[in-house]
Design a protein that fits this description.
The protein is an all-alpha fold. The protein contains five helices and no strands.
């Protein structure tokens, strides 16, 4: 949108790009990423069940009992608590890089690469902070 001057058109009409572009995208990520994390957790458990029963002599019931003993609600909630923060960081970085893109398709590609690299770095840093915090709390 920046390259095709749509941002300038929004500003000329009196609309804030932050309010009309960044906030909805970041809010959508903050709401969607925890749901996707939950779906990923469930699919990981189903995949673990399939792999364990296919490769070992463990029965599905034994797998479910062992998994229920190993995973607590704290583990599940800790994963879901940090996901909105990760989503917000990714959204802000991606939108910021998108708004900073000038110069055509090459600039968009370069900003996309930059957004991905910075997002990965932010996810690592935020996850590390949460891991440290949860370790202090004993979770």
């Amino acid at each position: 949108m920046q390259v095709s001057e749509e941002i300038d058109a929004l500003q000329a009409m009196g609309f804030s790009p932050f309010r009309w572009l960044m906030i909805p995208r970041c809010l959508a990520l903050v709401l969607a990423v925890p749901v996707l994390t939950w779906i990923g957790d469930v699919l990981a458990l189903v995949g673990g069940l399939a792999a364990t029963t296919a490769l070992t002599n463990m029965t599905p019931r034994a797998y479910m009992l062992a998994t229920a003993n190993a995973i607590t609600a704290d583990h599940f909630l800790a994963g879901l608590v940090k996901t909105p923060f990760l989503a917000l960081a990714i959204g802000l970085i991606a939108c910021g890089q998108g708004l900073a893109a000038y110069g055509g398709a090459v600039a968009v590609g370069a900003r996309t690469t930059t957004a991905v690299v910075w997002s990965i770095f932010a996810v690592i840093v935020i996850s590390s902070v949460f891991t440290f915090f949860f370790a202090l709390m004993g979770v």
